Amino acid sequence: MATVTVKDFQVGFPNDWCPGCGDFGILNSLHQALAGLGLKPHEVAVFGGIGCSGKTQYYVNAYDVHTLHGRVLPYATGAKLANPELTVVAVGGDGDGMAIGAGHFVNAGRSNLDLTYILHNNEVYGLTKGQASPTLPMGSQTKSLPEPTIQGSVNPLMLALASGYTWIGRGYAFDVRGLVELIQRAIRHKGLSFLEVLQPCPTYNNLHTKAWFAGKDQGGVPRVAPLDPSYDPVIEPDAGEGAVRARLGAFVVEATRGGEPIRTGVFLENLSVPDLGERLAQRLPAYRHAPPAHRVVADAKGRS
Ligand code: SF4
């Protein structure tokens, strides 16, 4: 195959997501990100969980696996360990990843294997008629709930931090340009990367809609905005404990702020932890650990 284009990653059959679903923005961004990295379809494997987002892999022309509920990360882990040259992307929803899959989410962080996990966060179980997911804030009542939820919510970024993910970011489904860059940075990171994507579900989440994110009810002031450019997410390989603590302190402030806007961007890029493949290669010299094809592309900071 000569030059790779977005079309190489697209498929030619119909999509059954609801009109206006944020899944479309995430899918388009994934197509563009993979093509922009110069990857070829046979170099990529996409794993989907259960839920509306769990159909994503069918709409990407690459190796794809539809896994069990909450089990997308173990499947992706197995594939990456078996073929380290493969670029592995796991995709799932907030219900899939933060409830039944939460144990796998935490333990994947301990391994820091070189793969990317994209979480579609729409705060509901869309595929099963809109029940509250673990990310719906306490007291919220979406249109399919008979009463406001009385349970607290999980902050996926904070859980990723506590679990040891070495790259953590957040994007918004309809900011495709920003999302393409975030997905590319997540894939280039050598280690486990976690990208939360805020995603409207126009069918069941009538609270956090596309208009809400755009701030239509507050004079058009968007509720999502990029992190301040002065925010530095990078922890260098030789960073001392003090530098690490300072960086994590800034992370917590940005990831938990209660006010507007909700920040998007890269919150953490920790280069001080070797990925599992490197550690395995030291323990087992026979373990093949060739860098994936995308590593020839330098990232925003010039690393390659
Ligand atoms: Fe998208 Fe919601 Fe429809 Fe599922 S139910 S396809 S998340 S709009």
Automatic annotation (TrEMBL):
Chain ranges of the Thiamine pyrophosphate enzyme TPP-binding domain: 50-197
UniProt cross-references to PANTHER family, sorted A to Z: 2-OXOGLUTARATE OXIDOREDUCTASE SUBUNIT KORB-RELATED, PYRUVATE FERREDOXIN_FLAVODOXIN OXIDOREDUCTASE, BETA SUBUNIT
Keyword Ribosomal protein attached: no
Leader peptide range in chain numbering: none
Presence of the UniProt keyword Oxidoreductase in the record: yes
Name of the protein in its database record: 2-oxoglutarate ferredoxin oxidoreductase subunit beta
Pfam families reported in the protein's UniProt record: TPP_enzyme_C
UniProt keyword annotations, A-Z: Oxidoreductase
Cofactor: [4Fe-4S] cluster
GO annotation terms (biological process): cellular respiration
Domain of life: Bacteria
Entries under SUPFAM superfamilies matching the protein: Thiamin diphosphate-binding fold (THDP-binding) (SSF52518)
A GO term, aspect molecular function: thiamine pyrophosphate binding
